[in-house]
Amino acid sequence: MKLTSTAFADHAAIPARYTCTGHDVAPPLAWADVPPGTKSLALIVDDPDAPDPAAPKMTWVHWVLYNLPPDAKGLPEGVTAATLPAGTHEGLNDWKRTGYGGPCPPIGRHRYFHKLYALDIALPDLNRPTKVQLEQAMQGHILGQAQLIGTYQK
């Protein structure tokens, strides 16, 4: 599987538009080569460098989506709950809300991991799961995975 964005290249800087210092909208994402037999996709965006890349203490979760349809080819810039592909469910980010929350690092240059998973099942309604709850539900069902890393520093 491949995961890309027209907004930034892998391991390159995420434009401010997609961060708390800009419009805080989700970047456009596209994927390809989804494995045969995929019944749904899940997307997790997180930052393992929080709060300080020199001394990380936690992974901050920015976005949790699951049950994206397997025939979806990506997400447009600024996608919202109302414009997500039919059947897609949202989980909670670390602001304790659903939806995209852009990079907003307090110090240093952080890495933002956009992780796409192909699953052999459509998951039941997990009622706004956290990243950990979604990862637990996905165990044993991952057919493929793709990753796109962006960086940002205020």
Q: Can you put this structure into words, describing what you see?
A:
The protein has 154 residues and is mainly beta. Helices cover 5% and strands 36% of the residues. It is built from 1 helix and 9 strands, in the order ββββββββαβ. Strands 2-9-8-4-5-7 form a 6-stranded mixed β-sheet, covered by helices on one side. The protein has a 3-stranded antiparallel β-sheet with strand order 1-3-6, with no helix packed on it. Strand 4 and strand 5 form a beta hairpin. The model has no long low-confidence stretch (mean pLDDT 97).
- Range of helix content: under 10%
General shape: globular
From the alpha-carbon coordinates, what is the Rg to the nearest angstrom?
A: 15 Å
The strands making up the biggest β-sheet line up spatially as 2-9-8-4-5-7
Estimate the mean pLDDT confidence: 97
Which structural class matches the secondary elements? mainly beta
Question: Low-confidence spans: pLDDT under 50, at least 5 residues?
Answer: none
The CA-CA distance between the termini, in Å, is 31 Å
The helix count comes to 1
Q: What is the number of beta strands?
A: 9
What's the order of the H and E elements?
Answer: EEEEEEEEHE
How much of the residues is beta strand, in percent? Answer: 35-45%
Oligomer: single chain
Q: How would a textbook summarize the main sheet?
A: 6 strands, mixed
